[in-house]
């Protein structure tokens, strides 16, 4: 802090040069009148008032004087050490304590209000992802500009990022597209409310839950055994035993968390009322709906939207691709749009994996047949060796010999459009 114009003596009494003290009083008076720090600094420079170190006056210097309690006769000690901080009342002051308090109160209130940014609503910032790097998109709306868009965080942070060729999307256009797709499109509503429950995934999830439960039961027995050993006075300070007990407790905690998460997933996937709930959510939308409710509806229906952009010369100015994954469904949709973003072509509606046990087994045998015919792979050992030899990543859900195999994706051509004009854009702010 700035201790301008003050001289300290051994008994903590202080005195000041009266001319210098007058400048401090002017600073407080100007502040009370509503002048900003930089304007006050400019006035002091124009008046050729010297600073303690013979440098130019700056806004931060004025700020230091305004906040310094020594000018109201209080000396602060150990300001950077809260535990040892204390104050000493001096027998002199330059600024009346009541005036000092009044100025600082007004100053703090002004700081809260100065530069306060206008708050905007961003409908899709929780569900938009970059199709190239996987990072989230964020909304950036400008008050006096039409350049308001959702953009990839990675592209903004790093100049040579992997998704540098991707593009942001206009906020109002993207919001309008999603609202029209979810709440005004009859085809989507019919597809979702009639979508079959994923029995294949449920079967896998339930088996995983049973396996985790067995592990948890075994770990509980292990922890109890270690606890009994620690109860022995001869072993209670055994470092290895204490370490093993701590590890067992931590492992048990992780297993419990995994079981809770898996149980929640099973509840979501196996929800018999899922389709009815989806119908209710879609039909809850009205044009005068509150923003908070609208955002909850969107987040309840969509898990994520991946955005990709093709800049190739043949694409006539660029083409966007939007992959929409619906929440608690294995279904997704693929849309394409020109860079103007007023016309969206619904290319396909996809099911990412088998739904029934019969479909799953059919896909499993088909995949094994293809691998045998194309690559002479006739066993899981052959499959794993092939991946290793070709430096390919093992994905358990794609391995037809694995219990976690999910089956093949099925696509349905939609051939529908969502079109709107500039006048039809929806502004949620």
UniProtKB/TrEMBL annotation:
Q: Does the keyword Manganese apply?
A: no
Q: What protein is this chain from?
A: Recombinase domain-containing protein
Q: Example GO molecular function term?
A: DNA binding
Q: Does the keyword Flavoprotein apply?
A: no
Where would one find coiled-coil regions in this protein?
202-272
- Keywords carried by this UniProt record: Coiled coil
Q: Name one Pfam family in it.
A: Recombinase
- PANTHER family recorded for this chain? DNA-INVERTASE FROM LAMBDOID PROPHAGE, SITE-SPECIFIC RECOMBINASE RESOLVASE FAMILY
All copies of the Recombinase domain together span 4-113
């Amino acid at each position: 802090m700035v201790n301008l114009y003050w001289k300290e003596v051994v008994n903590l009494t202080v005195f000041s040069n009266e001319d210098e003290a007058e400048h401090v009083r002017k600073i407080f008076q100007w502040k009370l009148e509503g002048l900003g720090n930089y304007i006050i600094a400019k006035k002091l420079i124009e008046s050729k008032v010297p600073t303690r170190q013979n440098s130019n006056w700056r806004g931060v210097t004025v700020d230091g004087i305004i906040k310094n309690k020594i000018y109201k006769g209080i000396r602060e000690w150990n300001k950077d050490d809260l535990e040892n901080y204390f104050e000493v009342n001096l027998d002199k002051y330059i600024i009346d304590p009541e005036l000092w308090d009044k100025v600082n109160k007004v100053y703090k209130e002004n700081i809260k209000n100065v530069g306060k940014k206008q708050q905007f609503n961003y409908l899709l910032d929780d569900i938009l992802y970059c199709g190239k790097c996987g990072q989230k998109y964020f909304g950036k709306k400008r008050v006096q500009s039409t350049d308001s868009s959702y953009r990839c965080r990675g592209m903004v942070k790093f100049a040579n990022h992997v998704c540098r060729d991707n593009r942001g999307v206009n906020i109002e256009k993207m919001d309008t597209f999603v609202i029209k797709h979810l709440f005004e499109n009859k085809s989507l509503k019919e597809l979702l409310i009639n979508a079959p429950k994923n029995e294949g995934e449920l079967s896998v999830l339930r088996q995983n839950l049973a396996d985790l439960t067995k592990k948890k039961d075994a770990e509980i027995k292990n922890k109890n055994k270690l606890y009994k050993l620690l109860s022995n006075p001869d072993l209670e300070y055994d470092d290895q035993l204490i370490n093993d007990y701590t590890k067992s407790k931590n492992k048990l905690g992780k297993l419990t968390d995994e079981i809770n998460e898996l149980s929640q997933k099973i509840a979501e996937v196996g929800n018999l009322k899922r389709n009815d709930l989806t119908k209710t959510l879609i039909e809850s939308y009205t044009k005068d709906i509150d923003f908070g409710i609208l955002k909850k509806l969107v987040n309840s229906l969509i898990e994520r939207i991946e955005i990709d952009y093709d800049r190739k010369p043949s694409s006539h100015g660029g083409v966007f691709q939007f992959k929409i994954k619906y929440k608690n469904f294995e279904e997704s949709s693929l849309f394409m749009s020109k860079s103007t973003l007023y016309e969206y072509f619904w290319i396909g509606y996809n099911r990412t994996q088998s739904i029934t046990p019969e479909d799953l087994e059919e896909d499993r045998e088909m995949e094994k047949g293809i691998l045998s015919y194309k690559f002479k792979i006739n066993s899981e050992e052959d499959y794993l060796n092939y991946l290793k030899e070709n430096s390919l990543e093992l994905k358990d859900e794609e391995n037809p010999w694995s219990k976690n195999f999910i089956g093949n994706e099925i696509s349905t051509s939609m051939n529908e459009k969502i079109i709107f004009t500039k006048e039809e854009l929806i502004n949620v702010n």
